[in-house]
Structures are given as structure tokens and as C-alpha cells.
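so im writing up the methods section and need the DUF4062 domain-containing protein record in one place, dumping it here so i stop losing it
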Amino acid sequence: MNIDVTKIFISSSSQQTLQPLRERIKAALENAGHETVMYEYGDMGLYTDNPNQDCLIKVKDSDVLVLFISNKAGSLSRNNPNITITYAEFMTALKNDKIVIPIVETQILNFYKEHVKDELDRAIYKYEMKYDHEPRFTFPIVKALLEEHKINDTVLHKKILEIAVDDFIWAFVHDCFNMTRWTYDYSIADTPELCSFLLKVLSQVLRKSTKFYLHEKEITQNLLLYDELSVYQDAVNNFMKCIVNAKLNLPLFFKTLSEYLPGQSIYDPYSDFAEHPVPILNISECKAITLYKRSEDLFSLVDSYGSKTPAQNFKIEDEDSFVAQTYHKDMEHREHVFYSEEKQMIYMTKKVGELVLSCHFQLSQLWSSRRVNSYESDIVSAIMEKRQPFDFAIDLLGGMLNE
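--- predicted struct ---
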């Protein structure tokens, strides 16, 4: 029996002084029955040729991000000098509703609370009053504040220099303190004690967050209910028009479905924090739809839309057929993505009883099959930004055409 364990991503800058801590924390968490992900142990796997991007993919796949902040920030991004990869991991975890447990070196968090927090809050408030919106990044505000201290508060400026902390750390700590539910301080040098402390914290956080996330889900659902009902009602009305004389008009049905599958873009998760994110891939609107039905040892074409020369039949054991693969993989409750490098085409397939539906999308550039596979969930999410119409269409299709 497979048991799902908590996946914990261990995040920090790559400074050498944190390496013993990271190794001990990894061992302690794994001994407690958790699964850990850490870059230097090869836990990333090979997804793309961009290790930063691979880290963020792994953050999305984890349940918890444990973050250690000491005095070194690590390298700032070449694409966006307002963030580091560790900060990008932190923000990716927050944006994907992961549990984030930041642990900040005690003297740094205490210094922040005593000397930095109030001034930085005031500087951010002034920015908001001037520009009528929140700053996208905290680091530019920190840099301006530190420059101001050089002239107007030389005593505080000297204290900041003496604590020997990279400037970016103050922005990072500020965002952790304001964006997370828990920000802990601990002497990171006390590695064995910190391991014990983290395990206790993790147990408490998981216990407390269970009830919170259940309520959070209910609240979110209630807030989105009106919008979802509106979209669903619109879909029901449009798809019901496809039933003519108690039969499903498939050409009209396919045309209606294609209108709910517009073109979308995929973004490099690292560029989520850039000033002007640039898509790494554009997915066209639905170009074609085909529908096949099993009859003994063959899948026969029922109807198609937008495809000039669809295949008429596939053998049920045809290992090269996306239709046959979809049918055999027991994927009634999910969509799957196949890719043809030759045609530069995505095929999103869905099993519906004895039917297999395939929706075709053109990619803006040539990707490898391996890269497409690593982005499968992102591609499906992008294609079906609002999935209620698709789900209703599938229910209608199965109910009308499956005997």
C-alpha cells in the first residue's frame, strides 16, 4: 500500500555555513517519516536545462517549505535584480498555498523588529500614498532607506553595517514577517537543538493548519460561488442548444466546446516575479477536436471538428495511438497530454466510458516531449482556466453517446 507522506522542500541560500544545518535537518525530517527535497542531494530530478526553474517546479510539488534565513542572501536574479532564487522559492510556495515555515537567525529577526520594521513600514506607506499602489518588490524600498540612513541616521547605519547582513535580507525578513502566519527565530548555529525545535514546530503547524485550510477552502468557494455559477449557467445554456430532436449535434457541440478552450500562455515560474513576465510558450486556441468510440477491437471515428484528415480507425492495442493509450490508462477522472514534436501539436485527451475525446492545440515553438511532460499540469491548467464548461460537456457527451 502506497502511503502519501509530507513532502518538505528545504530552502535557504547556498552559503557554506548553512550546509551542516541543511544536512542535519534533512536527516531529522526523513527519520520522522517525511520526504525531503534538497538541491545538493539531486532531489530535483531532471526537468529542464534551468536548475532555478526545476527548483520552483519541486516547490509546487511539495506540501511544506522550510526556509532558513541567515546573513547571506545569495545571488540576485539576472532577470530581476529585486529577488533571489530562495526568495522565488518562498513566493512560489505562498502563491501555490503551501505551508511555509520561515526560521530566521535570532539576532537578525530581533534587529529587524527593533530597528528596521517600523521604518520600513513607514517607507512602504509613503510609497503607497505617492503611487496609489503597493510596491511590487520590497528590496528597492530597503535600498532607498539604507541610502537615506547614510546621510540622516549615521548611528543606525553603523549598527546595520556591524551586524554584517546582506541588504536583501531585510526585505526578505520583512516579507516573511508580513506574508506568513508563522515566523520563528532560532540560533541557526545550534543545529541539533534546531532540528528538535523544527520537528515540534512542524507538528504544531500541520495540526493547526488542517482546520484553517478546511475553513479557507470553504471561504474561497463561497467568494467564487457567484462567478462559478454564472460560468456554469452560461455553459449549460450553450451546450443544451446542441441537442436537436433528442440527439447531440456533434458539429455544433464541438464548435461550442472549442470556444471554451481559448489560447493561453505558459510562464516560467521564475519569471512570475519579474517586472514584466514574458511567456515561455503560447498555446493556441483549440484547433481541432476528434471523438472516437470503441467497438470490439477498434476505435472508430464518431465525428471531428477542424481536422481535415482525421484517422478513421485505431486498433485497440495500437501502442502509438494516443486514443488507445488514453483508453488503457484508466484516466476517466483526469485529462492527459500527449505531444507530437513533428507537428508541434498538443493533444489533450479524455476517456468518457467507451469514448475518447481529443482536443488539439498548436504550440508557438518547438518543445521536446520531455519538456512538455514536465509542464503537463501547467498546460492542462492553462487550457482549462475555467473548467466548468468542459466538465459539463464531458457529462453531456457521455450521457448522450454511451449506451
